[in-house]
Amino acid sequence: MGMHAVGAFSGFAVRDVEQARTFYSDTLGLTVADDRGGLRLDLPGDAETAPSSVFVYGKPDHEPAVFTILNFVATDIDTAVDELAAAGVSTLRYEGFEQDDRGIARDPRGPAIAWFTDPSGNILAVVQPD
């Protein structure tokens, strides 16, 4: 690589780091560690097929993206959405997607998916592969 990179990692902003810590740790059940003034979220999965962590940093004037920034793969999307609902997380509704009463879109051309947000408005999703 031309810039002599020896690795890479992804990151995203949140308005409030402590609020994000609570959401990602307590609500979503991820392992969260302090990292350079922000947080490191340890992501589930095989490090060879997906990043093993993501960096979350505070930006008080953060404006969330209008696209999904993080996808969580589930073997059973119905159970995953039920667990999110039990934790007080609501799914998002999008025009043009047929979603069931729990907010799960099941397009035969792609994976089943449900979107939700973190406390900073970042769009996240739970996906069940075909």
TrEMBL record:
**Keyword entries, A-Z:** Lyase
- Provide the leader sequence positions: none
Instruction: Domain (VOC): give its ranges.
Output: 2-129
Annotated SUPFAM superfamilies: Glyoxalase/Bleomycin resistance protein/Dihydroxybiphenyl dioxygenase
GO molecular function terms listed in the Swiss-Prot or TrEMBL record: lyase activity
Q: What is this protein called?
A: Putative enzyme related to lactoylglutathione lyase
What organism does this protein naturally occur in?
Microterricola gilva
